[in-house]
Amino acid sequence: MTLFRIAGKNIRKNFTDYFLYFASMIFSIVIYFTFVSLKYDNTIQSASDGSQKISSAFSGAAVVLIVFVAIFIWYSNSFFTRKRKKEVGLYSLLGVRKKQIGRMLFYENFLMGILALIVGISLGSVLSRFFVMILMKVMGYSVVANFSISPAAILNTFLVFMIITLITSVQGYRLIYRFKLIELFKADQEHEKEPKSSVLIALLSVILIGFGYWLALQNLVTSKAWATLGFMLTPLVILITVILGTYLLFNTLTVSLLKLSRKNKKSYWKGLNLIGTSQLLYRMKGNARTLTVIAVLSATTLTAVGTAYSLYYNNRLNAEMANPNSFTFIGVDGKTTAKADQAIGQAPGHKVLYHESVPVLEVDADISGLKQNAGSMEQTYSVIASRDFNRLAKLQGRDDFVSLEGSEAAVLDPAYMEGISPDYVGSTVKLQGKGINEAIRFKALKEYTVLNLGTVYSTIVVGDEMFAALQPKAQTTTIEAYGISRQDKAKELTKQLQSILPEKAELSSFYDQYARGMESSGLLMFMGGFLGLVFLAATGSIIYFKQLTEASSDKARYLILHKIGVKKREIRKSVAKQVLFIFALPLAFGIAHCAVALMALSKLMMTSLVVPVVSCMGIYVCIYLIYYFLTVHAYCKIVTNTK
Amino acid sequence: MKTILQAKHVNKTFGTKGNQYTALQNIDLSIEEGEFVGIMGPSGAGKSTLLNIFSTIDTPTSGEITIDGQNIVTMNEEKLSDFRRNKLGFIFQDYNLLDTLTVKENILLPLALSKVPAAEIEKRVEAIADTFGIRQILDKYPYHISGGQKQRAAASRAIVANPSLILADEPTGALDSKSATSLLESLSKLNQGNQATILMVTHDAYAASFCKRVIFINDGRLFRELHKDGLTRKEFFGRILEVLASLGGEHHDAV
């Protein structure tokens, strides 16, 4: 019998053992292949105008995926070889030469790699079609169904995984050379030492995390810490302190806490708490690194997906904020304006909700009087009358109005940012121009506007009398503002208006910005979701593998417990508690880290991210829970199988 | 005197039809409270199978077994666990101590499982540690102590919950003669002082000579029974060797 055939037989006979490793390889290949075929796909490239953007985004994400997939396969490979150390030792003891064993392991691994590649690529071919449809959907394109498998994608995937398989196969070959025979046999019997804990380091871990959080939540503009460390360095400092803190926390604080709980004899000496606590205590230190990796990965995934989804989710809000009307344009000449009005009135599927013609003055102003004004000294304002403002605000569904007298004015600034924007209220600016020299005082600030930003300058509202006084002297234009129903579907109408109206009309539509936002944030969202799902599946699998390794080395312990009369139900309960601890700890910290990061982001973006972020976390926790139950089930099955 | 264990017509066969192997055949046995019974026999005679059945870890093919008035053959898995926990104590050849727990925690485990209050646990562990002379190693972990100490710790765990019956499977199998003697003396003391009922499986005539009664089985059947009665331990040891000799071969290791 040749070595090659022994290797093949090995795989067939121990398929269940191999299955986990095999499955994780297939999983990685399917994911990677799907991703690359999206990258090479014509449908997507031609559907988007910014194909350069999409292609480079995909390339970047593909690199992240390769690194990740390589780590993941390496991890499951080492889990798998650890399980087989004894078998390899036995071959060696029976007198098979090291070289032969090495070659056998190499063939075995290589065979599995090829098999996984074939299965993975075939599965991926089916799945990528499905993913293209999802991608088109979230990007707001109508689905095109003629998606084909590209040979380039197959070649790319094949090369990448061939290299990874070669590396793991060589690793397998070296297994027999790396360890002494005695080590191979004792793989499972190494005595576990009781871990030590230091109060000082435990305290340090809390301080580190606290400091990182504190730094992240500072106001960027006013914080002294950010100013001293610099804007490039501070995020790095935050990252390092939080990750280090998390590691030390898992490493020592949990050990200290478990030791403390052991002191409380009343609860510790109750049923299987004795077993659960001591098991955790012993495993904690060895698990600290894995738990940290999982906490950081969870935090990264949640933050990335949360951010992407927030952008996607807030796209409508942003478009509405900048474009409170479905369309606004300047009435340049009566003919085109009438034509546009007709087009809007007759557009199929849309109803005109309102139409207003608003007189707007273009006035230059000396703004040196603005407090905290870092920019220029002069600015052009679009000035509207307070009665027009009040009418538009009401039409746009805002329960708000201004009443202005004399030289009082209100400023409309939807991009207002406290600390960065000028401190309007109470400031005075001078309106200047031919025959105009009027000092006005800002009485109110509205953090929204009533005219689409693309059509007008920064807008200020003045009292009706002041407006009447200014009107004859300033350049006056009439702005046509429309509100229509189903404005997010107005693709055709927008195109039509663009062709009717001259450039000077400065047409600004809700749909245009909305669609552009959907395209870019949809892509981000898809990529975030895709990578997030991969990371989630991988983190779940890493804990799953880890727990199952522990389960098989704990088997003897649970057998003893079974013999001295512990019920299966009790063992199940104790296992569930133990596994929960391992699962919940990194998740809790992942969520906490993510929450802080997104709080900082939300401050920066000035939008509430609660809804999108909480829904992301909800989904994440749900999938994570599925992994938890799977793990508990598999763990129990291993340790309660007494026959 | 109360009967602790009563076995009637116990049979055990392994394998499927056509390829059957009879491990136990029509075993009748009864053990009274306060007895110290040894079970001996050559390898493959069915000693371990019998003990596994009494331990409720294995079930007989047919027959009836009552321990402390309860029929263990008809019990379900849940009840069996409770039964093992409350009525039986185990001493295994390979100790079966949990290496993540200290000696003390190992000993108190059965009490913790039965939800005995912490103060009571403390008292009972101390008392038992004195009986077996392991007070000074209570806070050590199993891998820090010797085989003899491990076995005394395991024995302490077996009796800490005051079980109706203590089952010992080759408890001296892995011990040197000095440790073995000290363990056997402790068991003997426990049997005489506390009226503990002990059933010990051994192939070592020296260990068996500490018992009050020794039952020999061969080829799955009861072969003979010896009572110590008035004999000294040495005389009893001689009698046991005679029986073993009549069982034939394979017993050079008995001396």
Automatic annotation (TrEMBL), chain A:
Pfam families: FtsX
Residues passing through the membrane, by range: 18-38, 58-76, 106-132, 152-176, 197-216, 236-258, 291-312, 523-545, 579-601, 607-630
Protein's membrane topology: Multi-pass membrane protein
Presence of the UniProt keyword Metal-binding in the record: no
Protein location: Cell membrane
Domain named ABC3 transporter permease C-terminal: residues: 61-177
Keywords annotated in UniProt: Cell membrane, Membrane, Transmembrane, Transmembrane helix, Transport
Assigned protein family: Belongs to the ABC-4 integral membrane protein family.
Entry protein name: ABC transporter permease
Organism, as annotated: Paenibacillus cookii
Automatic annotation (TrEMBL), chain B:
InterPro entries: AAA+_ATPase, ABC_transporter-like_ATP-bd, MacB-like_ATP-bd, P-loop_NTPase
Family to which this protein belongs: Belongs to the ABC transporter superfamily.
ABC transporter domain ranges (all copies): 5-244
Organism: Paenibacillus cookii
Keywords: ATP-binding, Nucleotide-binding, Transport
Molecular function per GO: ATP binding
Name recorded for this polypeptide: ABC transporter ATP-binding protein
One Pfam family named in its UniProt record: ABC_tran
